Amino acid sequence: MKVWKRIEPTVVNKIGYRTIVTKTFKLPDDSTKGFQTIDQEDTHFSGVVALTEDNQVIVAQQFRPGPEKIMTEIPGGKVDGGEDYQAAAVRELAEETGYNPGKIISIGQIYKSAYSNGIHHYYFATNCQRVVSGQQLDDSEFIDVKLISPKEFIANALKGQMTDIGAVLLAYERLVNLS
Amino acid sequence: MKVWKRIEPTVVNKIGYRTIVTKTFKLPDDSTKGFQTIDQEDTHFSGVVALTEDNQVIVAQQFRPGPEKIMTEIPGGKVDGGEDYQAAAVRELAEETGYNPGKIISIGQIYKSAYSNGIHHYYFATNCQRVVSGQQLDDSEFIDVKLISPKEFIANALKGQMTDIGAVLLAYERLVNLS
After folding, report:
1. CATH number of residue B155's parent domain
2. Are residues A78 and A130 in the same domain?
3. Are residues B150 and B70 located together in one domain of the fold?
């Protein structure tokens, strides 16, 4: 299996906050083809599977515009330019749920999709404590914070009630050992 | 947590084979906001964690235009209009790898992303047999078929060498019990 060679032209289309990049590649049979990918300049996202002192998972219930449903998600979001990935996870946890981690460790990175340059960085946080100031949500964020058991968290993910599935896979053995 | 109310306008932009839909919602604070989602009319994808008679996982190594890397993926792809989801998984397995399943079962459905209406349907196939005709690849598909142990398959996914992570989560307990 050979790496495809990226060639010109590259065409960038911006629709709202989204960027579609048409990348042209020379394929292994020497033909050329353009592929549309959902790329972003700042392509990193951080998310965290976060547990309270009594090992309840802190989840963010929110309406999601893609599925057009309320999903039960892990706290997370886009890494700000120049921000440390773990710092971004800690910031998103605090902003979306009002919790600070006791201990936090990296559990890995995963590509978002075959058609995006986006990378998800996942963390596992234990002994999280509620901070006095509470949530600090962005204008269009409306999030209900719930505490659920690791067992229920895994069951939610398996039932398709979550979009950030990679985090559950990376945290799986840790979560099962807590149950 | 309330479901957001979808209101007009809806704006559809098509860039190559990709459709960006700007959906407008009335938010819980009565403000309105547009969100760009990567929606498709035919929004279903099927994928399969497929095992040979001696319980090796059949994977498809291929270059992916988003990560711009060779990834080790499960066989799968877009469901054709009107096609049964399981039939699509069986078809993609045959086309991409040249294997037919012995037994195949559904292991669940997962939303692709918070910003897409896409749904992934996952299957688990056992006792897969190689067919005489072999792979039947599309014009821009170049796939090396590999057989790897369930342990290596899970390790690959955890190391970020796969994009279709939901399948590994849904198949996890079955895979671990085979190892």
Report:
1. 3.90.79.10
2. yes
3. yes
Q: What is the tens place of the pLDDT at every residue in B147-157? A: 999 999 999 99
CB contact under 8 A, A66 and B112: yes
Bridge pairing between strands B5-15 and B76-78: unpaired
Mean pLDDT, chain A, rounded, equals: 95
Residues B24 and B66 in one domain: no
B138 and B52 part of one domain:
yes
At residue A86, does pLDDT exceed 70?
yes
Sign of CA dihedral A169, A171, A177, A178: negative
How many domains would you assign to chain B? 2
pLDDT, tens only, A13-46: 999 989 999 999 999 999 999 999 999 877 999 9
| Identity of the residue numbered A73 | E
B29 interface with A at CB cutoff 8 Å: yes
Kindly list the residues from chain B whose CB atom is less than 8 angstroms away from the CB atom of residue A144. 1
Low-confidence residues of chain B, pLDDT below 70? Answer: 179
Q: What is the pTM of this model?
A: 0.95
B52 and B77 in one domain?
A: yes
Q: What are the residue ranges of helices labelled H in chain A?
A: 85-97, 150-158, 165-178
Domain that holds residue A28: 5-38
Phi–psi pair at B10, nearest 5 degrees: -115, 125
Cβ distance B66 to A144 less than 8 Å, yes or no, reads: no
